[in-house]
């Protein structure tokens, strides 16, 4: 399982701006994390920790250092117990539940937290940053339960599992096995941390879990927009639909840039070359909305993506704990930067836009399997002919599954942020629920990917059967290459067969070209 990472590109943590693609690269081990050792950077980090030390010696009052946490900020911590306080923070937050974050998600969490602390505004030591780097470099992954964050004292409970592992406690996933953190750190010659005052809060009192999940969700949603566009083009051809619904002049009068981009992609996919004019369905001047308005549905997602990217990237590049330590100005700034409202909004919005695309595809499939709407294709897109047609049911059950997955995706679109509730003795009386929104969004993406896999089978089947009905059909060049790739992967359904293996094989190929058109 161990793989040398030294030849990989690096992502440098030195306080300068990172992007969500950097986090994705680290999460998939396509890049290696490197913490800057530049003297200026090290000095900047050390200044924060030194300032806190000085403040403590001068008997200053700092929230979460000389006081209890949250609503308990009115409790004064006796000086001889200050050192123990950070360890209590992660200990009593060890109450997470639910599934564990995946290896990819966990790497993203570590990287996002490191990015935030490397801003130099959290008063942590260089040793803490190095320890986080060591977890990433050695791929020692804290087992983080996904549930238990309200997303506005940051992701306190899930991040307590990061804090504990840095200190050699709780469990990690290492080389494919779950083992005690202390054992693995010892094996690697890494000394457990003893957290300094404020360091527990610095690790835990922030938005790293929701932001990490958002980075990964964003990239998957971008793929949904592009592949759904390609599939729409296939479905237009398969159903003998009209290409003229995506006319350039038509879209020039509705100036949503993303929607225009989707229409342009459809034009490119449906372009049959200079000789042939855009195909026109003789039976129907205007196709039904799931085809005609595809740019208006996918375009919402396409237009929302750049805005959501900016929200996610800004959160990624923020100091998002409390208090913020301004070593330069020698001030401790008490605020609420752990509040993940922007990520909550991005994830609530993204899951809505993605699920709408799943719904669009479900409607397109409904047209294709139905002889009342598919303009001459066989019922259920079955490839069987002659007497055997009677017992074959083609994609009938696959369409039912698509309806189920779509319904479940749509059901997950209830915004999480509006379920804010007062908690923690009314200190946290308004919270973001951003981590729940991000988990919902990932679930919607899982279900939508299943819909996309089914639609890949449908496209393959639909194009082949349209050609059978119309042997002179000229499949546009962009789609011909796509169809050839699909045909290699999915045999034509002639006699009924279980399609679960085809679905799984397609889902396993999500990084490949067939899933990533218009890249
Ligand atoms: N997020 C809280 C801190 C907090 C930490 C731990 C808790 O258990 C509760 C609250 C604040 O900064 O105000």
From TrEMBL:
Gene Ontology molecular functions: tyrosine ammonia-lyase activity
Reactions catalysed according to its record: L-tyrosine = (E)-4-coumarate + NH4(+)
Signal sequence residues: none
Coiled coil, from the record: none
Classification via CDD domains: PAL-HAL
Keywords: Lyase
UniProt cross-references to Pfam families, sorted A to Z: Lyase_aromatic
Single biological process term from Gene Ontology: secondary metabolite biosynthetic process
UniProt key word Signal: no
InterPro entries attached to this UniProt entry: Aromatic_Lyase (IPR001106), Fumarase/histidase_N (IPR024083), L-Aspartase-like (IPR008948), Phe/His_NH3-lyase_AS (IPR022313)
Enzyme class: lyase
EC number, UniProt record: 4.3.1.23
Protein name (database record): tyrosine ammonia-lyase
